[in-house]
């Protein structure tokens, strides 16, 4: 499971870099007669959501940061 977490974390970092590149530099650009179009922003955001959940699962599960309180009524 640790290998999966590491891979998902690394991919998440790369996806965040790609999203940042689009936000700063635009979806596409042209140099001379060549044009480059970056990955689709919507698809990158969906992938980021998926990777975040995979990383969270590897860190202890869905309820990792959950606190349980017991109230006793008298």
Rounded to an integer, what's the Rg over CA atoms?
19 Å
Sheet with the most strands: spatial strand order: 1-2
Shape type: elongated
Number of helices: 2
Largest sheet: 2 strands, antiparallel
Total domain units: 1
Write the layout of secondary structure elements.
Elements: H1 2-25, E1 28-31, E2 34-37, H2 41-58
Antiparallel strand pairs: 1-2
Please, could you describe this protein's structure?
The protein is mostly helical. The chain has one domain (2-58). It contains two helices and two strands, in the order H-E-E-H. The chain has helices spanning 2-25, 41-58, and strands at residues 28-31, 34-37. A two-stranded antiparallel sheet has the order 1-2. Helix 1 runs antiparallel to helix 2. The chain is elongated. It starts with a helix and ends in a 16-residue tail after the last helix. The mean pLDDT is 83.
Features:
74 residues, mainly alpha, two-stranded antiparallel sheet, 2 strands, elongated
Short recap of the structure:
With 74 residues, this protein is mostly helical.
């Amino acid at each position: 499971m640790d290998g999966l977490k590491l891979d998902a974390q690394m991919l998440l970092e790369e996806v965040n870099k790609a999203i940042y590149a689009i936000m700063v530099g635009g979806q596409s650009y042209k140099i001379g007669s060549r044009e480059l179009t970056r990955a689709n922003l919507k698809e990158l955001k969906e992938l980021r959501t998926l990777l975040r959940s995979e990383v969270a699962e590897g860190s202890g599960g869905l309820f990792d940061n959950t606190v349980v309180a017991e109230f006793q009524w008298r």
